[in-house]
Amino acid sequence: MQSSSQYYSDYLSHKADVMKCDQDMRTLAGIKNSLSGDFSDRQNSVNGEIDELKEALNRAVRYDPKFQTIASEGEAQKEKDTSADSKLNDAVINLENEIADLNNKRSMADQQANQSYQDFLTAQREEHEAWLNSLRNRW
Q: How many whole angstroms separate alpha carbon 112 and alpha carbon 138?
């Protein structure tokens, strides 16, 4: 059986792993949000320009079915969401998978930390009882 100090050292090590996983998950979530946010900003900008061009075309050339058709087709050229860009979508999916893996690793480390702390308390109690017994045997 290990000493209580070894169990406590294991506990601290597992808690450090939990904190590292938390930090890594926050970092990856920030990257994912940045990717999605940057894309959304770009998407809104491009879609706004398309809307402005479409409105300008409709104002400039009224009552011409050819230009009205072209203007309405502009809607199809608008930027889609992140899933429309396969590489960006793959990056977001990979980040989400990595975050999920880190969350599983964090859960395991947290369980191990809790177990190590319980083992520490048990070992500490047993060491205390052994110390008390040694004192009783002296008297």
A: 38
